[in-house]
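Notebook B, p. 112. Complex prediction, attempt 2.
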Amino acid sequence: MVFIFDLDGVIVFTDRFHYLAWKRIADEMGIYFDEKINNRLRGVSRMESLAIILERYTGKALSEQEKTELAEQKNAVYRSFLEKMTPSDVPGEVRDTLQKLRAGGCKLAIGSSSKNTKFILERVGLADFFDAVSDGTNISRSKPDPEVFLKAAEFLREKPEDCYVVEDAYAGIEAAKAGGMRAIGIGEAASCEKADIAISSFSELLGLIA
Ligand code: BG6
Ligand code: MG
């Protein structure tokens, strides 16, 4: 079987870092921002995330240059959290399941909108683990567009219809379906109607290859 995993919220739990980094920027600018708004940022690119946060901005119009600087500031704060990550930030259940899927002959890839993907994989000791990594650096459209997953399938030389995508974001489930793949929802995305399969814990994936 072929699995393409989202990274943030599936393999590692960096959502909190995204939240804290955006929260700092929003607070500095006097923009209301909470965990509910943060949920809308899942799977969405950095600049699109900023656009969502700026929906509540009422100050003077910002130039594209100023928006780029805000996104860079957010990323610098986010990277300061990522720098502290270690292999222990991958839950034992996730690491164990990935190893068992690999031992069971599965092909495993990452499909993430994040431009920090390779840095995160290095920090947590998974830089050389996956058969392919498709991320924010090789796409021009982020989820719910299927590009990141279609690229992962292409890197693996597999047909989209043979791939199972594991996602925690609604935008990611939509991307998988738009790409003709099967979508497995976990976390928040387990309740997404478009998901073909819902799981409540990562190790349930082993049931699919049994
Ligand atoms: C996704 C996250 O994985 O990556 C989003 O779910 C984030 O919240 C996106 O905005 C882009 O991340 P980065 O690391 O390129 O800013
Ligand atoms: Mg995610």
